[in-house]
Amino acid sequence: MAFASPMSPSLHSLSSNPFSKHNKILTLNKIQPFSLSHRHALFRIDWGSLWQGQASLNYSLYSSITSADFLLDEALEKIQLPKGDTWSIHKFGGTCMGASERIRNVADIIAKDESERKLVVVSAMSKVTDMMYGLIERAQSRDNSYATALDAVMEKHKFTALDLLEGDDLANFLSLLNQDISNLKAMLRAIYIAGHATESFSDFVVGHGELWSAQLLSAVVRKNGLDCTCMDTREVLVVNPTSSNQVDPDYLESGRRLEKWYSHNPFNTIVATGFIASTPQNIPTTLKRDGSDFSAAIMGALFRARQVTIWTDVDGVYSADPRKVSDAVILRELSYQEAWEMSYFGANVLHPRTIIPVMVYDIPIVIRNIFNLSACGTMICRPAGSENENGQRMESPVKGFATIDNLALVNVEGTGMAGVPGTASDIFGAVRDSGANVVMISQASSEHSVCFAVPEKEVNAVAAALESRFRQALDAGRLSQIAVIPNCSILAAVGQKMASTPGVSATLFNALAKANINVRAIAQGCSEYNITVVIKREDCTRALQAVHSRFYLSRTTIAMGVIGPGLIGGTLLDQLRDQAAVLKEKFNIDLRVMGITGSRTMLLSDAGIDLSIWRDLLRDKGEKADMHKFVQRVHGNHSIPNTVLVDCTADSYVASHYHDWLRRGLHVITPNKKANSGPLEQYLKLRALQRQSYTHYFYEATVGAGLPIISTLQGLLETGDKILRIEGIFSGTLSYIFNNFVGTQTFSEAVKEAKEAGYTEPDPRDDLSGTDVARKVIILARESGLKLELSDIPVQSLVPEPLKASGSAEEFMLQLPRYDQNMAERRQEAEAAGEVSISSPHY
Ligand code: ADP
Ligand code: ASP
Ligand code: MG
User: Fold this and answer.
1) Which among 230, 733, 755, 792 is least surrounded, fewest beta carbons within 10 Å?
2) Is 12 within 8 Å of 27 (Cβ atoms)?
3) What family does this belong to (predicted)?
């Protein structure tokens, strides 16, 4: 039959067609497919019922039905919708429909698709739906600026049309746009007067964005030479509202209406409005925010299409929101369940309800980037085999991570809950009555508490509903509290293979613990497609980055603050500068020095300091040192999961902060001996804290410089060895001096030589006093389990008593030869006692 291929070029010459009367309609469709006037001719809007938000918005046929028309209709309905693989569905989001240039681009992509038949679902131009909701908001709150805001909406579309269309197409579009705008003006005026709009009234208003964008796009597609018509999906999609501000498609009725619609519009290219639909009573409604993805999926199912392609502004579904995790990777393939979980948990690249309609018929969804056609996108489909040739698993068991912000936790607690049937039903009954949506639930098996997350804006109503429902139980003490914990976020890990891989949650929680993130509640469905944790909102991005880098082996980013850029600190910074590339490439560590502080000046940077010029920067751009501010900025002004402070001073004031830093989750690395050799009680507190938490406190360089002495000792102790004795030369400086204090060499000459060679501290008394050695000894002793104070270590100082407190280092060096005689005697005594042996130095 001639209609089997309605897109054939013979569309104009249907004279051989037995239903020649229909020629007129088809030709009309071709010249002016789905014009708004056409739409208005079909619909008569019963404003009264729209206003009340009730049934019976009548879309009735205006035209008088003659018997000939009737016959024609009957005949037309015999044109069957050719369902199946010949159809491909495309959906272009608001991001793709931002301006005239983009709309042209969309039309090009449609032209390039070689499918025999295609249905294109479009969103409103970007921002338009927000603008439309804004109009209603303003009118409802009796703000008469809605009129200028409506003008802006009109201007946006007019401007775009002027750029895209010309001649009759342009004139038609503009006249219809004007007509719609004047209708909207009247409606908004009515809302303004009433100070209220029903949901159906709002839905009717906001849906215009999609009507206009579909109009514009189909006109451009036709201008490009492709026969195409426009579908007002309110004529086809029938949905039932649910109590939870969602809608459920009525596939049977929608299918029937589609058949009918198609029989009147048998085109091979159809541009359809996303987002909008009708109730069974023909009241215009919407599929709710971001619903165009859902529209496309429903269409996919109704047409039994080969594929649904969702075009947007990113290369596909990423392993985490690319705005929050710069290392996120594109997921080539996702199962339907994984995509559903990801989108449910906030990956707004796809509306969560998009999956179910297509999953039923195994129709794949492909997410593609309209701005990067070379990227192949993400395919969402039934999972194929998961193993590579060697039988090894190819990918991480966790596919992706997503977060939902602005949640509050509600905790209902009490001993009267355990073993009482119906408590959960009462709780969630009350929550339902408050109209809130429960995002996750967790109940420990002790049944003493039930906790659940709801959107923050709904939590007050939930708490009030619970308090009123459980008043009696609260008064009687059967319930101890209904607590609200605000400012929470959910982090969900999603992946089908989590089900068969042990240790996934251990790794997840370990990564969170290492980033010092406190988990407030946990839920894991037994399908094991996702693990959900509730955390503080302020930790959310850091948590996302920490877990993502753990599973995807992306770079471990570390924020570092260096305290004391002297000889040691400065050398460290230079080493970091030289090692940065190796750390990045070989070890996947991205180390960023966010701050350097001396005792007087500090340098801060939120992006990381350029280490090739850190000295110049510190000198020229440094600000007044302030330890509190320093730590605040190094730790707080970024979303890097790990922060480490390196104390390169020998200062006990700096060391006195370690406990607080570790408690706050900052890792500490130091060669400074003051903390570990200070008062025993403080040392024990520090070690206890370090054992409890996942924060690192590394102090290997406090003894033996670069040699792994402490870690060796720890290793021996952990494996059951007992330390009997530790022998050593604990000071390279003293060793050097003693080795040279032989023959005719005087003591002061030996010290002078050591100082000139740069082996001593600037003031050699720091070495000669023996305190430094005693500190090293006490650190090793404590490490071995001895509970000693520094004063328990006997030390013979080599600083002559009168020179202990007086003068500068230079003065000390000048005075020292006066004691050479005395030192020579002490050496002889030691020699006589057999306490001197000449050996090669050990540093
Ligand atoms: P459209 O207007 O095309 O429907 P949306 O703004 O609704 O586009 O969705 C696309 C956006 O979703 C992207 O720009 C991206 O920032 C965001 N997004 C959030 N999570 C993810 C994720 N895991 N993968 C990809 N995009 C994501
Ligand atoms: N335009 C609608 C919205 O912004 C639907 C969509 O774009 O998916 O919510
Ligand atoms: Mg979207």
Assistant:
1) 792
2) yes
3) In the C-terminal section; belongs to the homoserine dehydrogenase family.
